[in-house]
TrEMBL record:
EC supergroup of this enzyme: hydrolase
Species in which this protein is naturally found: Nonlabens tegetincola
Ranges where the Amidohydrolase-related domain occurs: 70-415
Family annotation (NCBIfam families): hutI (TIGR01224)
Protein's name in the database: Imidazolonepropionase
Residues binding N-formimidoyl-L-glutamate, per UniProt: Y151, N330, G332
Amino acid sequence: MTTVYTNIKELFQIRDASIKRVIGSQMKECPSIKNAFIKIKDGVIEDFGIMSDLVVVENQDQIVDVQNTIVTPGYVDSHTHLVFAATREKEFEDRINGLTYEQIAARGGGILNSAARLQNMSEDELYEQALIRLKEVVKTGTTSIEIKSGYGLSMEGELKMLRVIKRLKETELSPGVFMSIKATFLGAHAVPLNYKDNKQGYVDFIIAEMLPKVASENLADYIDVFCEKNYFSVSQMVQILEAGAKYGLKAKVHVNQFNALGAIEKAVEHNAISVDHLEVLEDEDLISLSNSNTIATALPSCSFFLGLDYTPVHDLMDKDIAVALASDYNPGSTPSGNLNFVFSLACIKMKMTPQQAFNALTINAAAAVELDESVGSITKGKRADLLFFKNIDDLAGIPYNFGTSQIDKVMISGTFM
Ligand SMILES: N=CN[C@@H](CCC(=O)O)C(=O)O
Ligand SMILES: [Zn+2]
């Protein structure tokens, strides 16, 4: 049976299958059809077009009149830390009272605080909590997601997190419906206390012990490193990326959040799928990225929450670098996985047009997790992961109504959630 959704006010982000990402001036366009229909069969987009071209096959097509709703592909959140054990409100208050994120981390808070909490939580409880968050972000329009480890910082802790992510991948959100989830191994998120005076020893442990185990259980799609002062150096990032590559793990890395250390050039040399954060960017970083296929991912909710500079996305887009936007959902720097808010911040704070920001949240975000063959646009053969918006007249209505979700319904694989 095919279901045909009719009388769509405007169907956005329609793309030919050959378009895998958009750059430069292409980012200003978000192709659409007014007064449209979309046909879905077995969870996949079979056809779409203008209403006057619709041919209905009796006894085969079920018609659903969506009465002037705007329809778009679902958001792809290409950078999250959605599996964690506890929130960190105390640090939030500390920051209000004047401490910086770095000062809190130097006192043993931050990522180490999350690691301590995670150590004492069972895999089952961690899974239950993460599933609640996952269902929550689906409601605000996220239909594909990447999730990192990185709060374990020990063999058991990292494996526990990655096994939770694997269980989320295998979880039916509705009968027969699974979310597309990518898992990233971020053992090098911070230096655990037992390696406090031996950072290289921890890097060696990641490479010699953790990675082989993660790979043997097939628990990760990507490898990540937090390359930053007081965390991991560029040379340590390179060691880890090279070791990961031997197991077929491609790189997605945290770089240039507080300092430009030259990590982007090295990440690009190691064929990173994406470099993420980029609040601080130098000319050399732009040059490296502009000669590469690496996607630049901005995380404006993190800048908002920590009061950091916003990623200079126009410098990136002006150099024809593909830009994606993601939430960075985590308990320390971004306790929100709401991509509608990311959309608003991108427009309001980073001066992206609604079309640029929407491209960065869909087609380019899908490319940043190598899901561009299956999601991220309205394309025949792609998964029917769709958002239905009521009470807005245009794409701009989404970021304009900041702080609220205008989404009426979310569909994953042809099923309403
Ligand atoms: N910067 C590194 N990692 C996370 C924050 C982790 C935390 O504070 O718990 C981020 O991307 O913002
Ligand atoms: Zn992050």
